[in-house]
């Protein structure tokens, strides 16, 4: 039996999980429930535990710190995160600690058993490894990946292998992916591992393979059991969630070219070619997704609409806060989609791409806002839509939500600038950094840096230096202090560096400035 630990500061939640889940059927036993991470760590130090199911927000030691300690101490324990929709962005930070899954609290009866089974599978794999069973090309998963790559590259795959690995039981969505790194340090293996982790967390209803092809080019294959009714727009939804995670946790950009879903293993090569064609159409900087449109090839009379251009224009108008212009642009899009004679399913996909892009931009504009429920309703509404009017109404509603969020956050963002400037004013004499300021304001340093520059046009480091140089200029003109003493007085410990920074912002060195206008 697998030993389960429950960690939540709410007794009714612990009791509910203990008594509403059929643990016997899962071949599991709840050995203890704890009120916080400290109690959990104290128990783990002396007792055997296989799986920890933990809340995020708790007193003493919270769930994120608990995950970190389990990871740092290399405890052989799998962790499942319990989260509310409002806490999901916070919970995602636990990804780097290799959590097995996230389970929404008010859906744990349906979702937790699946997460526990996933944890058990990982435990079983680790136990096999501990017995020094070598994983070779003959291992099922490795060889399946090998066969998928062979097929994509137009190499023959034997009927025996197709039958042996049951490759005709799936529908496939083939994706060509290019990774652009922010810096020179490239680690394809780490990126592939992280992408696989994201896929496992997001695409719970599908299997997937992340296959390196060459350099920074990889192929992502989504394998969908044929008895599951999963359409392309659902896959796109998942990929948009992954792009959000990539923006938050990885210093790279990912561009995805996505094929239509195919139902035959023999079509993988053609599908991969189409995915690469879709990838080649992406011209924007940053994370992006483009879907290959089969219908354009079938109807010579079809007008090709540049959805990417429409997406950029509508996003720009939305973030500018111009509702009337956005509504006109969306109406124009609807009219062009009708004239283009596209299939309604493709129209749904186009609207989904635009709405998802708007939401991604708003998330970046305001990371404190949680959009999980909004996005969930968005995808459900688009799936249920039957007319073009409904699609345009949905898109307009998303624009209105985004405009309201940005408008409501304007004053808060202006306050952010004020708070940063006040911190600099009160601490400029000390050795301060971006991290010091972000810690004092309880903000993520990357977010603080982006937001401050977006609002002021300068970096936080520039703001610190400009304030220090302004103070130094006053002292140079109005005191008898020596140059190095003035540098120390305004926060520069190194006289040479003080002089360098002074020249950068004033086009004169301190001595030249002091002697000017005399």
UniProtKB/TrEMBL annotation:
Write down a Pfam family by its short name: HTH_18
- CDD domains associated with the record: REC_YesN-like
The Response regulatory domain covers which part of the protein? 3-120
Name the major location. Answer: cytoplasm
Molecular-function GO terms, alphabetical: DNA-binding transcription factor activity; sequence-specific DNA binding
Subcellular localization(s) per the UniProt record: Cytoplasm
Q: Which residues form the HTH araC/xylS-type domain?
A: 418-516
Annotated positions of the 4-aspartylphosphate modification: 55
Q: Which GO annotations describe the biological process of this protein?
A: phosphorelay signal transduction system
Q: What functional role does this protein have?
A: May play the central regulatory role in sporulation. It may be an element of the effector pathway responsible for the activation of sporulation genes in response to nutritional stress. Spo0A may act in concert with spo0H (a sigma factor) to control the expression of some genes that are critical to the sporulation process.
> Per the UniProt entry, what species is this protein from, by scientific name?
Vallitalea longa
Task: Recite the lineage of the species.
Answer: Bacteria, Bacillati, Bacillota, Clostridia, Lachnospirales
What GO cellular-component annotations does this UniProt entry give? cytoplasm
Q: What is this protein called?
A: Stage 0 sporulation protein A homolog
Keyword terms of this UniProt record: Cytoplasm, DNA-binding, Phosphoprotein, Transcription, Transcription regulation, Two-component regulatory system
Keyword DNA repair carried by entry: no
């Amino acid at each position: 039996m697998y030993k389960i630990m429950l960690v939540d500061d709410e007794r009714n939640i612990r009791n509910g999980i203990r008594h509403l889940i059929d643990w016997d059927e899962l071949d599991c036993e709840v050995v203890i429930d704890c009120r916080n991470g400290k109690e959990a760590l104290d128990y783990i130090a002396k007792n055997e535990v296989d799986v920890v199911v933990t809340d995020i927000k708790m007193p003493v030691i919270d769930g994120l710190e608990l995950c970190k300690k389990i990871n740092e101490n290399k405890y052989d324990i799998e962790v499942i995160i319990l989260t509310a929709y409002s806490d999901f962005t916070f919970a995602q930070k636990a990804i780097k600690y290799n959590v097995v899954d996230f389970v929404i609290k008010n859906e744990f009866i349906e979702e937790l058993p699946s997460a526990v089974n996933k944890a058990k599978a990982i435990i079983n794999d680790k136990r096999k490894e501990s017995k020094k069973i070598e994983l070779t090309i003959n291992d099922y998963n490795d060889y399946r990946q090998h066969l998928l790559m062979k097929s994509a590259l137009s190499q023959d795959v034997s009927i025996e292998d197709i039958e042996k690995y049951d490759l005709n039981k799936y529908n496939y969505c083939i994706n060509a992916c290019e990774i652009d790194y922010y810096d020179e340090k490239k680690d394809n293996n780490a990126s592939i591992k992280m992408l696989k982790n994201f896929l496992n967390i997001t695409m719970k209803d599908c299997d997937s393979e992340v296959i390196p092809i060459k350099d920074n080019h990889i192929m992502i294959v989504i394998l969908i059991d044929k008895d599951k009714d999963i359409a392309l727009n659902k896959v796109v939804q998942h990929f948009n969630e992954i792009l959000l995670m990539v923006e938050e946790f990885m210093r790279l950009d990912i561009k995805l070219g996505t094929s239509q879903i195919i139902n035959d293993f023999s079509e993988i090569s053609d599908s991969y070619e189409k995915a690469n064609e879709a990838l080649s159409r992406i011209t924007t900087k940053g994370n992006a997704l483009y879907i290959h449109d089969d219908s354009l090839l079938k109807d010579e009379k079809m007008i090709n609409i540049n959805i990417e251009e429409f997406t950029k224009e509508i996003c720009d108008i939305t973030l500018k806060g111009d509702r009337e212009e956005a509504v006109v642009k969306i109406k124009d899009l609807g009219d062009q989609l009708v004239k283009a004679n596209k299939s309604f399913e493709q129209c749904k996909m186009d609207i989904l791409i635009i709405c998802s892009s708007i939401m991604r931009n708003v998330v970046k504009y305001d990371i404190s806002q949680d959009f999980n429920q909004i996005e969930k309703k968005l995808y459900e509404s688009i799936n249920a839509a039957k007319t073009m009017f409904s699609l345009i109404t949905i898109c307009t509603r998303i624009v209105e939500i985004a405009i309201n969020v940005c408008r409501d956050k304007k004053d808060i963002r202006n306050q952010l600038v004020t708070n940063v400037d006040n911190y600099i004013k009160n601490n400029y004499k000390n050795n301060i950094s971006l991290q010091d300021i972000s810690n004092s304001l309880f903000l993520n340093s990357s977010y603080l840096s982006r937001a401050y520059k977006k609002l002021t046009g300068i970096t936080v480091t520039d703001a610190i230096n400009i304030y220090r140089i302004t103070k130094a200029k006053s002292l140079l003109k109005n005191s008898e202090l020596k140059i190095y003493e003035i540098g120390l007085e305004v926060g520069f410990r190194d006289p040479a560096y003080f002089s360098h920074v002074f020249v950068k912002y004033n086009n004169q060195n301190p001595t030249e400035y002091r002697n000017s206008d005399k």
